[in-house]
Amino acid sequence: MAKHRITDTSKSPLVRALVSTFVGATVIATALGSHAVTASADSAIGVATATGARHPDAAVAAHKDGAESENKVNVTAEQVLALAKSQIGTSENVYGGGTKYQQWYADSQRAAETIARDGGNRTAYLNAAWCAMFVSWVGDQTGARRQIGWDAYTVTHAKWFAANNRFGTVPKPGAVVFFSWGGSKALNDIQHVGFVLKDNQDGTISTVEGNTGNGKVEERVRPKSQVVGYGYPDYAA
Fold it and tell me: Which residues of the chain have pLDDT under 70?
């Protein structure tokens, strides 16, 4: 990080005060991965040495602040479900594509990672099954991507929750629900995904799902017998 210096050449106390105020308001951005961490210039005094080097203690503090900010949860289940429900009625075209969810995923960094993992190309996602892309899009658009995850393949998405100890069998509002139409409880048999709206307490759950029915976003009622399990995003309270 380059060192920014502001020199006060005035003898005027008023000018010196104004300069001091400006220094205190200066923001220094330090890139930690893809996440920017900010600190005031006043807090950076003593961080940069005369040669521009960062003091070790300050580097540790900046990294800690970045990690805490990166993992901070600000999105609630209610916010996620509100966006998901607002999409009800969105439909694919006659070719099975044409949705903003497919276009978004095809253009995303995750698509490149998925192609490296599974093969194929970005264009293939434009007409691919999009239930998982819908869930991923909602997470991204609400700022809850780190909590909800993102993938175009339902099995991989479920395994991500399981690997993070956030997979279980209790339906909760905002949970990501994974289905197997034959009633299997094996992750590798997952065929579909959506969001839980509520447990109906009668052996069914209400959901909002993409790529269901006639290729639309719809609210559905599903029997729990078809549920493989639930992924639990770490929502804000």
Answer: 1-72
CATH number for the segment(s) 77-231: 3.90.1720.10
Q: Quick: pLDDT tens for 85-138.
A: 999 999 999 999 999 999 999 999 999 999 999 999 999 999 999 999 999 999
Q: Report the amino acid identity of residue 158.
A: A
Please provide residue 193's backbone torsions phi and psi, each rounded to the nearest 5 degrees: -150, 150
Q: List CB contacts of 227: < 8 A, sequence separation 6 or more.
A: 169, 171, 177, 178, 179, 205
> Beta 35-40 vs 227-231: how paired, if at all?
unpaired
* Burial bucket for residue 195 (CB in 10 Å: 0-12, 13-18, 19+): buried
Q: Domain spans of the chain?
A: 13-71, 77-231
CA–CA separation, 8 and 134 (whole Å): 55
Cα(106)–Cα(148) distance, integer angstroms: 18
Within 8 A by CB and 6+ apart from 136, the residues are 101, 105, 110, 145, 148, 149, 150, 151, 152, 157
Could you tell me the two tokens for 207? Answer: 């959901």
Which amino acid, residue 73? V
Angle between helices 100-107 and 131-142 (to 10 degrees): 70
What pTM was estimated for this model as a whole? 0.71
